[in-house]
Design brief:
This protein is mainly α and about 350 residues long. The protein has one domain. Helix content is about 65%, strand content about 0%. α3 runs antiparallel to α4, α4 packs antiparallel against α5 and α7 packs antiparallel against α9. The longest helix is centred in the first third of the chain and has 29 residues. The protein is globular and about 60 Å long. About 50% of the residues are buried.
Length: about 350
């Protein structure tokens, strides 16, 4: 909104010209998201408690988690509001990439909300996995095809930057469509799987979005992109504002979601964050780097897959419990120790991912 009014505002007072700068708007998008969480988080928790919107804990999960039953869930609604409002206020909504990133976030948030509602109404499994994959893949398909039609991606729509290697991109051709579907669905599910301990998924997401804020900024700057030998995409710099709004929402939600959690994000939040992360990976053309940036998410999803595959094939488990954060819990690690150590790994991977821009 402010960006659209900047010409009129500058006529009133010249210092309003700062609204043109991505860095300024990104900083205030972060602050706005934080303030929204701080001001409305407590009210939302009380409202959910009055409506008895509480989490149901799986009986097969760690016994220490049973005490969390009844904790308000669907806190992802707060995350969505804290993303949308700052982006509308500080972002450039005439930028089609920003609109598409918002669409991916809201779409996955709505899908997650449907899953949460089904669970609250007594269907403990929520939306069936095959339907989730279908809807997730469908948006990945739409996003991939959309990118191939946009002038901003002319000549690079199906290209992927290769970490550590300069002047080298992979051109997937039409195979980029299934890649986009895989990335979008895989990221959404990986964040969802990781959301099993207080503050774990939202804290890791914070590091990922900070990393993608930096990547969006340099990818959308022709000088930086040329210097770093990465794909340049005009207009993608505006996704820095969106990324920082999501980072602010994650940090603000963590105030209430840290151990012991006052509210859970539910699938509403985890799928929305996964959708936002997958959209950024595709739109910034740093799809392969997502494996490093979201390395903990990848490990969580992989541990779950290997556990299921091993048990079905050999009737034996690889881990004491999957995903892997539960394995460490059953080894005797306190929940807060698991979360903080996973955060440390996530922060290191985010820093490593940024360093790859120079190690090329």
């Amino acid at each position: 909104m402010f960006f659209a009014l900047v010409d009129q505002l500058v006529e009133l007072w010249s210092p309003f010209n700062v609204f043109r700068y991505i860095t300024f708007r990104s900083a205030y998008a972060t602050v706005t998201a934080l303030l929204i969480c701080f001001f409305f988080g407590g009210w939302m928790i009380r409202k959910m408690q009055s409506l008895q919107i509480g989490e149901t804990i799986r009986a097969e999960g760690p016994q220490s988690h049973q005490a969390k039953a009844g904790t308000p869930t669907m806190g992802g609604l707060l995350i969505l509001i804290a993303i949308l409002v700052p982006t509308f206020l500080w972002g450039n909504l005439s930028n089609s990439l920003v609109r598409m990133a918002l669409a991916g976030t809201v779409y996955m948030g709505a899908l997650g909300a449907l899953d949460d509602v089904l669970k609250l109404r007594g269907n403990k499994n929520g939306l069936r996995g095959r339907w989730k994959l279908l809807f997730q893949g469908a948006f990945g398909l739409i996003l991939g095809l959309w990118m191939m039609q946009q002038p901003e991606f002319e000549g690079v729509a199906t290209h992927t930057t290769v970490p550590f290697l300069a002047n080298l991109t992979l051109d997937w051709g039409w195979f980029y469509i299934p890649l986009a579907m895989l990335i979008f669905a895989g990221t959404s599910n990986a964040v969802n799987i990781t959301d099993g301990l207080d503050g774990l998924a939202v804290g890791l997401s914070l590091f990922c979005f900070l990393a993608y804020a930096g990547l969006a900024y340099v990818t959308g700057n022709a000088i930086f992109a040329d210097y770093l030998k990465i794909v340049f995409v005009g207009g993608v710099g505006e996704l820095t504002v969106f990324s920082m709004a999501v980072a602010g929402a994650c940090l603000g939600f963590l105030w209430f979601n840290s151990h012991p959690a006052q509210v859970f994000m539910g699938d509403t939040g985890s799928m929305a964050l996964g959708g936002a992360l997958g959209s950024l990976a595709l739109l910034t053309k740093h799809e392969l780097l997502l494996v490093i940036i979201g390395g903990v998410f990848v490990a969580e999803a992989l541990s779950w897959f290997l556990q299921v595959f091993s048990f079905k094939l050999r009737r034996k488990r690889i881990f004491r419990m999957a995903p892997i954060h539960h394995h460490f819990e059953l080894l005797g690690w306190p929940e807060s120790r698991v979360v903080i150590r996973f955060w440390i790994v996530g922060a290191l991977l985010a820093l490593l991912s940024i360093s790859t821009l120079k190690i090329r």
